[in-house]
Input
Amino acid sequence: MSPMNRKAQSTPGRERSASRIDYNPAGKWSVASVTARYAALRVQLGGTSDFALQPRVYTNPGGMTWIYNIMEGVADGVQRGDQACIELAIGYIEDNIMASYTGYIRERMARSLRRAPLSKSQQTRLANVFLSQLISGNLHKEYREYIRLFRTMGVADFRTTIEKQRASAKAYIRRAAERLLA
Output
């Protein structure tokens, strides 16, 4: 099968045609949906005046175009302290969707959120996600950054729950719990 006829086999969240590859998923995290929610959140929470949310686009000399996930732009906004982007990033981590590059994007968001001003309710939402993933054993590559973020936010209130995971039959869950408590 030639590379041009792979559209039916493409990864979820990755639209492919002969001259364009779009890494944005459909639905709640599509470009249109994210930009609309960003505009509403920016009015509600405030945003950085010199920041415009849009997906990164690259076109090579042969005319092939790549449209990268708009959530990379949200991660950039989190680094700038944009409150609307911080809220979108937390929602994205909560939803934990799987598509092309989403794990890397969540990893980048977690790194940026470590330096972002988070409210108590935002910290609680993130802690609940991290604990849920730890308990279920649904730990992906980005969980290493989640541990760093969780430790920055403080794990004292959740120590008992984390301690229980030290007795897990699965070594990777025990390791994650040990890292959280270190």
Remarks:
- The two ends are 51 Å apart (CA to CA).
- The beta strands are 15-16, 20-22, 57-59, 65-67.
